[in-house]
Amino acid sequence: MGLRGDAAIVGAAQYKPEKYATAPQMFHLEQVADLASRALEDAGLKASDLDGLVINGPQFHEASVFVPAMAAEYLGIELNFAEVVDLGGCTPVGMIWRAAAAIEMGQCEAVLCVIPMRMAPFGPSEDPAWMARAMRFGGHSTAYGAPEAEFDLPYGHMGQNTGYAMIAQRYAAQYGYDPEAMAKICVDQRTNAQANPDAMFYGKPLTVEDVLGSKMVADPLHVLEIVMPVAGGAAVIVTSRDVAKRTKHRPAYVKGFGERLSFKSPSYANDMTVTPVAAAAKRAFEMAGVKPQDMDAAQIYDCYTITVLLSLEDAGFCPKGEGMRFIKENDLTFKGNFPLNTHGGQLSFGQAGSAGGFSQVIEAYTQIAGRADARQLKRCDQVFVSGTGGVMSEQGALILQGG
Amino acid sequence: MSLKPMPEMTEISKPFWQGLNEGEIRIQQCNACEGWVFYPRRHCTHCLSHDLEWKPVSGKGTLYSYTLTRIPTLPEFADEMPQALAVVELEQGVRVNTTLVGLEEDEIQVGMALKPVLDQVDAKGNTLLRFTAADKALDSLPYENPLDSLPRNDKGQVQVGVDNPVALQALVSDQFTDWSNSIVVDQELINAFAELSGDNYWIHTDPERAAKDSPFGTTIAHGALVQILQSRLTFALPFEITGFQTMVNYGSDRLRFPSPVPAGSEIQARARVKSVQQSRKGTALTLEVNIHVVGNDRPSVINDLVILYR
């Protein structure tokens, strides 16, 4: 069942996170072409090698339908495989396994997975203020008949912060809560970011006191436990083993994956504290024939600290209810015994919309390829990667292994 | 507080919202598997049967989880700070996204027993389902019309300050004013307008030809004439906007002439506030003015007139 493990990540490109106000504005098609050429260059491949494309449909600026065909035409490439993925922050993880599966089925040889997340230039008739107003409900649909428009928004339930806060409160009631342990996630990841010049918070160390002293947004989440939205975007090239052999760096083979979703609002989860990554990670580990303790690093989607805590537990890195103790007893930095989010995590790197999850995928690849410079792990052959969309709504897991 | 997003009921959800408006909590139960379903759907989430039945329930439940917000989730909710956003599990096992009311912060605990509070949020009777502790006396929150506490002028109109967004929103209504006085649009008036405007097309000005060739069998008034005759038709608005520097007619968002006004017809008008929007330009109040031939349900003029206060 599942993958043989014959498809690999062979190259990547990622815009350095920037504040929206000062980041360059580019059309999304333009970013796709730019990221594609950088990722191909990184891998040592040519545009003519590409025969597959996985791209974001939602939030693609120049079109809401027919996105792959438009992008293929713009790039000037012919595709045997085209796919749109709509899994929020889990989209990058979802893209990688879909690309690997298509390659293993013999559908294609080299797939560009790409999400452009810099802002596009405003048209002469577009009003930035109006567009900001249109965005104010974030990921919440306001369409007539959308359950969340009818049953959430009138009560003020909106945005991700409060959903994650309610998951944390439920967890606290069931298992207890240690704010210092949660703050330590931010602090250890920030230590990692000090060795990553691309990170948004490079050069800005952090203490537990800073986190606990930062503004409370929705109990028990402080503002420093919440990702900062940034402009960015990323691309990853996934190829067959044959193509991987002629690339520049050590490939990271996709050995296992899992995906799980069943709700959009966590209010309707069977159990708010047992997250979908539990099922996704179990499947991924089984497919790869490895265990959590075999991993050299964990790149865990970290929109919020609570996401990291629950993912560590539910993916099997520590028993349920013991995540806080696990965090306090282990050194989560790249120098430590449990390297977690060695690029700084999105909490310190920045979150470029649904491309944010690529930061975890690309860091896993970079560590396996031995290209992580100052934060390079001494040994990195196997990495666990997770993705999370919505409010723990859609989650996925990857097991990557050095070739 | 109609500035907050309001539920727009669908054919599927209507029994739920109507139930709340009538003081009853109703949720769906599946006749095939007896599973309970919330939010309202056409099918059972346990067995996909379409045989669902609305059942009245007590609304009692427990607090599954909650958060207290320290930054409002939308600016419109600033008056609720901290918002006590909650997920409540009803006795039937279904969960409801809601808020807690009538509780101090330290009274709130996951797992606590709760009971429903019916909160009427607008003058139309729209009601939201909120919750409080099972041992509190609170059962409902009556609607407080923000217009009730405002002064009235000597014509009896409520005086609404241009800086009072909540009261301005409360002016928005589906209800039109009473009818205005009526006036007769005779051929003489039509001819005078033809002369003034230069629009002397025969359909307005030639009764003999109109009797023969016009689909209406007689001359009809210019749409533009009927539109401007609004100035002779006085309808009583129930409010007066106060506290502005200037008031200008900003134009019209929509102008339609859905039915003709045959020469000699008697016309009357009425109006309602369709929307109030605030922007950098000022406060734009859109008044939907409808002018009818007396006795005709179909308007002859629909004019969404935008009045800009600043």
TrEMBL record, chain A:
Please give the Gene3D superfamilies that the UniProt record associates with this protein: 3.40.47.10
- Which InterPro entries does the UniProt entry name for this protein? Thiolase (IPR002155), Thiolase-like (IPR016039), Thiolase_C_2 (IPR055140)
Residue ranges annotated as transmembrane are: none
**Annotated Thiolase C-terminal domain residues:** 264-401
> Record's PANTHER family?
ACETYL-COA C-ACETYLTRANSFERASE (PTHR42870), NON-SPECIFIC LIPID-TRANSFER PROTEIN-LIKE 2 (PTHR42870:SF1)
What is the name attached to this protein's record?
Thiolase family protein
State the organism named in the record.
Answer: Marinobacterium alkalitolerans
Automatic annotation (TrEMBL), chain B:
Q: Which residues form the ChsH2 rubredoxin-like zinc ribbon domain?
A: 17-53
Segments passing through the bilayer: none
User: Which CDD domains does the record associate with it?
Assistant: NodN
Domain called ChsH2 C-terminal OB-fold: residue spans: 54-118
* SUPFAM superfamilies tied to this protein: Nucleic acid-binding proteins (SSF50249), Thioesterase/thiol ester dehydrase-isomerase (SSF54637)
Q: Which InterPro entries match?
A: ChsH2_C (IPR002878), ChsH2_Znr (IPR022002), HotDog_dom_sf (IPR029069), MaoC-like_dom (IPR002539), NA-bd_OB-fold (IPR012340), NodN-like (IPR039375), Thioester_dehydratase-like (IPR052513)
> What's one Pfam family here?
zf-ChsH2
Q: Where is the signal peptide?
A: none
Every copy of the MaoC-like domain together lies at: 179-285
Tell me the PANTHER family matching this sequence: BLR3430 PROTEIN
This chain's protein is named: OB-fold domain-containing protein
Q: What is the lineage of its organism?
A: Bacteria, Pseudomonadati, Pseudomonadota, Gammaproteobacteria, Oceanospirillales
